[in-house]
Design brief:
The complex is a heterodimer of chains A (204) and B (287). Chain A is built from 4 helices and 13 strands. Chain A is an alpha+beta fold and 204 residues long. Classes of the chains: A alpha+beta (204), B mainly beta (287).
Amino acid sequence: MADAAVRPCGSRALLFEVPNAAEVAAIVAAVRAAGLSEVTELVPAARTVLVEVAPGASTERVREVVRDADPATTPPGTGTVHTIPVVYDGADLRLIAETAGIDVDEVVALHSGAEYTVDFCGFAPGFGYLSGLPEPLRQPRLESSRTAVPAGSVGIADVYSCVYPRRSPGGWRLIGRTDTVLFDPSAERPALLTPGDRVRFEAR
Amino acid sequence: MSALEVLRAGPQALVTDRGRPGHAHLGVPPSGALDGPAYELGNRLVGNPGGAAGLELLGGGLRVRARGARVVAVTGAPAPVRVAGRAAASHTAVYLPDGAELEIGRPVGGLRVYLAVDGGVDVEPALGSRSTDLLSGLGPAPVADGDELPVGPGSGTVPETGPVPVSLPVAPVRLRVRFGPRADWFTDARRALLDPTWTVTPDGNRIGIRLDGPSPERLPDARDRELPSEGMVTGSVQVPPDGPPVVFLADHPTTGGYPVIAVVEPADLPLLAQAPPGTPVRFTATA
């Protein structure tokens, strides 16, 4: 990834900045494939990848691997495909429909008809930023966020959709809810969604 | 089974260990003891293997009764220790007979006191760690009055350790930083961060410490810009648009959307974690 800007992040980490999500995915795939034992954290985000190495380790091999990463040769989304059943009765459904200039049924058809990719996780354990939201549903956050959004709430904001893994504050427009457990610390795979996974929502 | 019966938890008592690094890509903070060296010292004093869980006490104030004889050690911020009503020393192994009460007072300097117990606090781990994570609610709930903390089987041997020096925190706290990843968002990042004497505010916690001082000025073309969320390391000095910096500690969010002007050297973070509100803070640049 010759065009990645390398930004130092303390003595143990580098932040690689790239123009798009495909290049983020390519860097993550390359660093994973290289199996560098010194890498302790690998955190993709919207336009960056953070790579942290163990205390005392050098970031030089990470730099080399990222330099050679190439989206053209990165295999397309090989992650798990998840189907998440949703009851579309969210508190902001009317607002979403009005903003999009369509009716509620069309909102549901659009949201459940798309395939999403887990670009990155953050905000809370198991909270994934799912790209692939159809254009009319790309809407801003609420003007003031809710102090408590129930676990399992399905929301949209900006270019992403999400599912709240646990009760938390939140400002995303709520479209529906699911019983699917997004995060279970006692499970072998605690987070249902991992960056690179794909998601479909199914209307119930 | 051995246990510590919690008679009084004090202001904030949390189970802690080395945390759960390696899960940031799932949105899970590293968590773990904020004063790592003090926590590790406690385990060494009682003969525990590294990584055994103990307690992190904000402002001391803990009173527990031993169920089964145990060896304990109190480390971190220097605080008065009493065993069965008699004064005992901190920063050394202390024998706690079956049924005896251990009382830890308020620290005379610093903030966070660590209690290590021979055998370790044996609560259920989550993602390989017993640490309480205050941001995401992982790990055990904060310790409350009346709790019974199970203690694992002890090693039976306590190493002979000479006296361990107790260091009182000095002011101002000096934190070494490396600039970036977003120092280029500010008019003069070096001067903005290195020149002022900052002050620790009272609204700090395990997620981060908010400093009081002059807010670093953004460059004109960065003033109304938004940063797409990006990964953050522990020690990140984040500058929100409406005020002075926040230094992120172990329970920090794994991603953030405000620019990080610099990152504090990991070895210096325990100093900040031990700094009470009002403590002056100076940043210095590493080479």
